[in-house]
Design brief:
mainly alpha, Cytochrome Bc1 Complex, Chain D, domain 2, binds heme C, 10 helices, globular
Length: 236
């Protein structure tokens, strides 16, 4: 009893006594924490300051240079030119860099005569501004056109081709074709002709900026490429 009560009282007292000191320490810590957050926050902002992306500048340049082929808002009117609207900005920037022959390299990682010319004139800042502009635009949906192959296309997209060790496209490009930023591009709603051309380019090696896609395309037949490309156009 004695033990309990003598132990109980000081506990209560020291509890309230320490409470004040504790509160003080807690306030101090909180102040420090806020200070640290502010400090690291500003250091972070400073490190990123030169990289500030300006979609309005991108919009202007897009209207001047890219609109003729890709549409001012990235909804290209011709299947020869891919739609860029709503594509992930980081993916677009990567492609623009890949179209450029990098110092020391013999050829671009993504060989294309038309885009090589345009990419060569763009600074890294231009590329990021343009990418931010097109990424912020709304994609106009499209539709699959070939009823006879849509089932095969869907099967490949959703489940891959087990017998050929082709992984499901949906696994990386997401079930609705929206992709997964920043690594996996949006495919849904793209012109079937363009998607088909890219899969062939990966297979042939004209486009060698993705080991993953080269390995996948190498295992696809022409008929499989056509079917999955048409199915992808209808994804949204
Ligand atoms: C004369 C037409 C033309 C113009 C102008 C043009 N492009 Fe392209 N662009 C193309 C074609 C064709 C392709 C497809 C290239 C391929 O098959 O690899 C393409 C592909 C691209 C891609 C790759 C898209 C993807 O899904 O991988 C990006 C990004 C791109 N263009 C951005 C731009 C930007 C930014 C501009 C303006 C600075 C521009 N293009 C101007 C014709 C054009
Ligand atoms: C393991 C992940 C993965 C799987 C599975 C995959 N892809 Fe890809 N795919 C990628 C990556 C990464 C890229 C971007 C390559 C780059 O950076 O240029 C890409 C790019 C593409 C492109 C180019 C898009 C454009 O705008 O130019 C097409 C088309 C494509 N994939 C189709 C497919 C199809 C069809 C399948 C299924 C048969 C598939 N992918 C399965 C990872 C994958």
């Amino acid at each position: 009893m004695m033990f309990l009560s003598s132990c109980g009282r000081p506990e209560i007292r020291s509890g309230s006594g320490l409470g004040r000191a504790g509160l003080h320490v807690a306030r101090l810590m909180a102040g420090l924490a806020v200070g640290l957050i502010v400090l690291t926050g500003s250091a972070h902002a400073q490190a990123q300051a030169p990289a500030k992306v300006d979609p309005a500048k991108g919009q202007q340049k897009a209207a001047e240079v890219c609109a003729a082929c890709h549409g001012a808002d990235g909804n290209s009117a011709s299947p020869a030119n891919p739609k860029l609207a709503a594509q992930h900005a980081d993916y677009l920037t990567k492609q623009l860099r890949n179209f450029k022959v990098q110092p020391g390299a013999k050829e671009a990682e993504r060989a294309n005569a038309v885009m090589a010319g345009f990419a060569a004139t763009l600074s890294d800042e231009d590329m990021r501004n343009l990418s931010a502009w097109f990424a912020s635009q709304k994609l106009k949906p499209a539709a699959a056109r070939n009823k006879d192959t849509v089932e095969l296309g869907q099967k490949i997209y959703r489940g891959g081709i087990a017998a050929k060790s082709v992984a499901a496209c949906a696994g990386c490009h997401s079930p609705n074709g929206a992709g997964i930023p920043a690594q996996y591009p949006r495919l849904g709603g793209q012109f079937a002709e363009y998607t088909e051309a890219q899969l062939v380019a990966f297979r042939q090696g004209a486009r060698k900026n993705s080991a993953q896609m080269s390995a996948i395309a190498a295992r696809l037949s022409d008929a499989e490429i056509k079917a999955v490309s048409d199915y992808i156009a209808g994804l949204r």
